[in-house]
Amino acid sequence: MKHFSLSVVFLMLVLSACQGEKNKGTTSSSNELTAQSVIDDAIEYSGTEAYHSSEISFDFRDYHFISEATCDGYKFSRQKGDTLEVLHNSDFNKSVANHKIEVADSMAFKFSESINSVFYFMQLPMRLNDDAVIKELKNPQTIGDKTYHVVEARFKEENGGEDHSDVYMYWFNQDNYALAYFAYEYDTNGGGVRFRVAKNPQMMSGVRFVDYGNYKPKTKEVDIENLLTLFSENKLIKVSEITNTNIKVSPIKLDCH
Questions:
Q1: Among the four given CATH numbers 2.50.20, 2.60.120, 2.60.40, 3.40.50, the one describing domain 6-251
Q2: 2 with 116: CB under 8 angstroms?
Q3: Within a 13 Å sphere around the CA of 135, how many CA atoms are in the beta-carbon half?
Q4: What values do phi and psi take at 17, rounded to 5?
Q5: Where are any strands of DSSP class E within 20-132?
Q6: 203-231 pLDDT tens trace
Q7: Which one-letter DSSP state was computed for residue 19?
Q8: 31: Cα separation from own chain's centroid
Q9: When comparing pLDDT for 11 and 81, which is higher?
Q10: Cα dihedral 19, 25, 29, 35 in deg (nearest 10)
Q11: Lower Cβ count inside 10 Å, N or C end of the chain?
Q12: Spatial contact of 91 and 70, defined as CB atoms under 8 Å apart
């Protein structure tokens, strides 16, 4: 399932994997807490900038996925049996048993969205520095003995694509800036709201990987900023488990000059 702008993802893909530049959309001093400073600290803690210089592979459901850093953006692939689909920037190719298959543009777009959705969520929080993301620091929230920085993310209409009206909310542990929860509100396919709970964290080669519990509220008429409270009160419905297995991180030496 994907509920974010494909245009935003393509914009990120065409950036050089060697550069790893950050969007400084929020001006801050070194001592001022801002949405940007929270995101930057969260990215540093997560180690997700390793995607700029690594090949990262994993299994999700029935597919084997690979993210490969190149000097011309990321090359994403997924494979199931002898069927291989490769997305490099906006160029989609499909082959079966090493024979290229012609794919209609409409289906290529659908397959590209599906591949991008998996990698987008896998690469969080790094993707929150995409150029089209508008970040806003909200009031902190406390559940039990833990307090969280809360950041809202919206998309610019320009380069934001058809889904620029989607709204995301992220909760970062105030102690170490780990991404603990996130939620999103979307309009496609009749609209809806989802809330994800990070679980089973593991560090591999300095990169933090997590699985997610996927939840939804009992009604669409809910402020996503209140979802953490509803979750703590057991008022959300569990939809699915999102689990990645067989994760491998292999550094790549790129000479992009």
A1: 2.50.20
A2: yes
A3: 26
A4: -70, -15
A5: 54-60, 63-70, 73-80, 83-88, 91-96, 99-101
A6: 999 999 999 999 999 988 899 999 999 99
A7: T
A8: 27
A9: 81
A10: -110
A11: C
A12: no
Q: pLDDT, tens digit, for every residue of 86-144?
A: 999 889 999 999 999 999 999 999 999 899 889 989 999 999 998 889 999 999 999 99
Cα gap 67→253, rounded to integer Å:
15
Per-residue pLDDT band at 6 (split at 50, 70, 90): very low
Instruction: Check if the beta carbon of residue 154 is closer than 8 Å to that of residue 161.
Output: no
Rounded to 5°, angle at Cα 171 from 46 and 165:
105
How many residues can be counted in the chain?
257
Q: How far apart are CA 41 and CA 177, in angstroms?
A: 6
pLDDT in tens, 71-83: 998 999 999 999 9
Percent helix, strand, coil in the chain (nearest 5)? Answer: 25, 45, 30
Q: How far apart are CA 113 and CA 7, in angstroms?
A: 10
Give the tokens for residue 136: 């806003």
* φ, ψ (nearest 5 deg) of residue 31: -105, 0
Query: What are the extents of the domains in the chain?
Result: 6-251
- Measured distance CA(179)–CA(38) in Å, rounded: 10
Distance, in Å, from the CA atom of 60 to the CA atom of 67, rounded to the nearest integer, reads 13
Phi first, then psi: what are they for 179, rounded to 5°? -70, 115
The first and second tokens of residue 20, run together, are 């790893």
